[in-house]
Fold these 4 entries.
Entry 1:
Amino acid sequence: MTEHAAATERYLGAYRAFAGNGASGAPAWLRELREAGMARFADLGFPSPRLEDWRFTNAAPIADTPFVLAHGAPAAAAAAPHLLRGVGLHRLVFVNGRFDAKQSALSGLPDGVTAMSLGEALVREPERVREQLGRSGVHGQSAFAALNTAFVADGAYVHVRAGVEARQPLQLLFVSTGSGAPSVSHPRILVVVERLARVTLVESYAGDGVYWTNAVTELVVGDGARADLYRVQRESEHAYHVATTHTRQGRDSVVNLHPVSFGAALARHDITAVLDGEGARCVLNGLYLGRGSQHIDHHTVIDHAQPHGESHEYFNGVLDDRSRSVFAGRIIVRPGAQRTDSKQTNNNLLLSEEARADSQPQLEIYADDVKCTHGATLGPIDGKALFYLESRGLGSEEARALLTYGFGAEILERMDVPELRAQLDAIVRDRLLGAPARRAG
């Protein structure tokens, strides 16, 4: 029996009800995928801090809360405050895990770009979805991803044909209303970018109240293609957010992933990037801000499977009050992946004596002609930098605010969508400059 056996059994019961109520009409391959996900979840159960990958993060608040499966509900105003402004009207909106056609806008998409709900894609393009959905094998690696797979029903599907460039961002917005009993949604995102194609996506999560979002994103990028994925997590600070993002790249492809985490009481994001083609390039550029008792956990794996790959990983965190962060970054260089160039940096700024950051950079190198570096820093505001600004006429609080803001702005400056960057900058300014609190340092 696992530590959370009762919770595991609760979800087994919920799955049986789900499978017998509407989901039974799914094609055989999808039923098999769901069954495999639930079997794997039953085998793994909810993770315990006794597991190495979870020793700094306690999933008990999620396991012990009796979440019920969310149902989409009309919420005309739910999405409005979280829509990306100034970059066009293309968006897919989901409320409580279900597609909301009224708040979505897809007219004018370039020829060769398909964007629809995953539920619709399962009807209109079942063979193409079957070819890629679950191919990453994420449901075999994580109990939460397995649970998502068991309940997969809706989410976003994006397909970009070979040679097509969709430069205007497409927003995938998931909003939870958190009304009534605590609920859970399992959004699934599948993005396929064929050879020499290009797409920019903004994946957003927001909501109010107590709920749990359990999301999985699979991104497949073909030879010579490019995908820019901006991921903004602004869940309610009473909510829980667990996510898995898996990318697989072909030869000479580029993936730029920008995960930004502001919300949730407990947030965990597992990222695996597989550079499966020679000359592939990947950038992970992440920012997290914690306050109160927020807990923010990022586990990343960059897997160099082929030679001449290049990856750069930057994660900055700013932690206040009693908040805590976890960063575990693992770089793998497979046998034969010669001429790999990989760099990883995790920097944490602690604004309170009670804030805490745990950082675990890791290298696994099985090739001999590589350049790999990693490093981590944590601590309060640099006293010398503070003194320098004060000596130039800035007040103490103003100097602290400027240094703190710069820590977050460093990550935002690498983002290529000006409108999104400006909106995130406003959030960072409000969080870091809005109220002068007592500071350590």
Entry 2:
Amino acid sequence: MGHYFKVYKEFVSTCFSQAMSFRVNFIFLILMDLVFYATNIFTVTFIFDYVDTIGPWNRDQFLFFTAFMIAVDHMHMTFCSENFWWFSDDLKRGNLDFILLKPMSSIFTVFFRRMRPGTLPNIITTWGLMIYFGNACGFVWWQWALLPPLLLISFAFIISLEIIISISMFWLTEGHGVNFFRMQLQRFSQWPDFVFMYFTRKTLTFFFPILLVGSAPVRLMYDLRDWKYFALMLLYMGLSWIIIKALWSLGLKQYESASS
């Protein structure tokens, strides 16, 4: 782990050097994310101008869920999103050859090599939103203590699901369609599970559990007795890592270098 941490530090250093070479783009990335956050918050606020509750949640509870998912999305955009797009190009251009020759996990290098420093400053905004709406919900000390680990688990879970989807690029000629499909699935996770109809809710909870990303941890924070979905989320996370390892091995056997 120490070796991987040192390598990741170099990845981060390189990304910061590149990002600071284009300062205007750096600023625009910050502004773009702020607009995205505002759109999500205003959408929920607009809905609650006409209703008092949605399902079992009131306005503040729903807005905290939205803030939680904004924080997950912020981590995703900062630390991983770039890599999914580069993976498609690496496969087509044969750059994956050089990654496979490196003395470390190719999965780690492919999906965690690049980050987006321009979005990192918005961590102040995402945590500010969670703290504001958490206070509005009347959170106590144990709920605040649960927040950081639950946020990290949700982030790890959605990344695991997206890696599974992205590995399908080994068998497809064009990977951009896979990335757009992956992004559309992300949109489902931005809403709690109870807003969906029965068939959609069951499919996206048990068959492809994207709805667990936000609903499972936030339900647990609201009520510790509502732990079953979170336990299911942990089970699926363990299974996803097994599936990733198996699919990655199959994909490498399928892979034919574009550079050879």
Entry 3:
Amino acid sequence: MLDALTILQEAYECGILDATEVAIKINMTKENFVKERHPYSISSRKDGRFITTVRKEDEKRQQIAAPSYVELISKLYDYYNDRKSDYTISDLYELWVEKRKKQSVEGIIDVKTVKRDEQHWRKYYADNKLVTIPIKKITTRMLNDFLNDSITTFKLSRKEFNNMKTILHAVFQIALDKELLLVNPILNAHTDIKFRSIQKKKDGSRLYLDKEKVAFEESLYQKKTIEAYSILLDFQIGTRVGELVALEKEDILDDEVYIHKTEIVDEEIVDGAYVRKGYKVVEYVKHDISSGYRTIPLSKKAIKILEEIKKLSPDSKYLFTQSNGERMTSRSFNYWLKKYCKEAGVPFKSSHCIRRTFASRLYAEGMPLEEIRVYMGHEDTETTKSYIYNFNEIEKNRAYMDKAL
């Protein structure tokens, strides 16, 4: 779909728009806007310049002058429409981050997200001249130079680059909302610098290989603890660890598990510093996107695991409650994952590797990628593809090759 600037350009070239007529209409609109708000008279001086007086609340009276009546009207329009010529990326960022901090206090977004935004600002933006230039004067070329320089200076991968641009998108959206801009300039920006390539790690380090999973599960079943069963269940449903430890028993219904909450780090901002209080469960999932809210069917193995879990903690609200009566946290889950891996003689791999194992095994058994995407809580299948790895041991792959070749 064409962006607004391209549409206007083509309309002009095709003769649909007449530049003179458009300019007249713009000036008339501005003049009517000013007349409704400006209580002072406009006068012309002997030198041909036009002058008037303005004053807002708590401001001293000041004069505004311009070489022509049209230019004075334009200045007054900006003045009353709060279209400040000195609004910069830095100014709008401050508005945005304050809103984000408020949202974190209200539990709408994770405070970790705000911290990450602030880190990106300090790293990529704070010392760059671009953020001090009035936003209305920023050109596509300036943006292109800034983006290309950032890729080179910080050796950005494509993913890091997209994360870094989050602030620009947010700032320009505020500018659009305030009618400082008509079109988001980031839409026309482009880069021609090569991104840093990321070598994909070997499959064996990204998920639990076949023999590892078998040995690990055998060891976990022997433990017969809540902590062991939590790991076993995660292999069956492939959730993020924050979603897993936030599960309540009422989230399990009709042999399905409903994912609609997650655990986040509980932090608050005190005197400008982040103070960690612990963990808390919130009523949203990662990124708060619709695809994150999902229902995952339970396998026969998962149903049996849940039966054992309920025997161990029949009266608890949460599915995974530790011996001290407290809800299991993601930190404690990872502690037990590492401990049980060591005891089973299996290389420790993170909880996210369990998610990759879940996705990879479903794909290997022929489940459509779109279905796996749904169960993983991803927005698109491209993200899901990045979770698909070969979980076979190298010996099994060689056997495939010997047979095929």
Entry 4:
Amino acid sequence: MKRKSGGKDFCGFALPGMFCFFAVVIIPFLYGVYLTLTDWNGVSSVKNFVWFDNFASVLKDTQFWSSLLLTFKYVIFVVIIVNVLAFGIAYLLTRGIKGQNFFRAGFFTPNLIGGLVLGYIWQFVFSRVFVGVGEATGWSLFESSWLSDPSLAFAALVLVSVWQLSGYMILIYVAGFMGLNQDVMAASIDGATGWVKLKSIILPLMMSSITICLFLTLSRAFMVYDVNLSLTAGAPYGTTEMAAMHVYEKAFTSRQFGVGQAEALILFVIVAIISGIQVYITKRQEVEA
């Protein structure tokens, strides 16, 4: 008779992962919630309880709310542009065009570059290459570095983020398109062509991929820090400081860990609510192929 070892198998496979999850995610999260109730400065061995004073300070921190508003604006641009661009390119790269595998690899490459390195590379592009183009052509758009103008610096952040994130989303959409029945993709009967075909056939069947891509781009855009730090560092004059960077500066530069953790918790709750609503709405639109 075979010996049942379900419990041992579960412990052997699940417990290490659960332990890592609790050690890396749950425990630090709970400790962060605890810090929101203290006046800890990151150095002192004493943590005095101030209860909800830190949240009161957050409500008065106009810079945090300005950075959060800017983050919302950034998220809207990035999520829409990334998903529309990735969906369109993925559709083209599953139509059997010549060299489509090469193009898939090419579009994915920017995602392999770390955010910090990516920011420094594009900082050189905006400050040197674009300016050189402006001097050679006389185009006013490139006469000075984009990073020195508040509106253009924001556009630069969006451009770099779209360039980085689109490749990964393209692969997800490509996988979604390849999973569709080819008869469905080739449907042209009953007027199923052009926009009608896209709206009534392709989009409903691609909703599972759209759900994943929207969730990933939302969470990544809201929590952007590395590209923000290396590309603009909040310049000029703090006009491109996103919420995550403001939280970091508040906690580690200003040594107000309690307030910084309170702001981080508020940001987490906002992202969780928005992402949850997005997943709920898009999951309801999914249909079986």
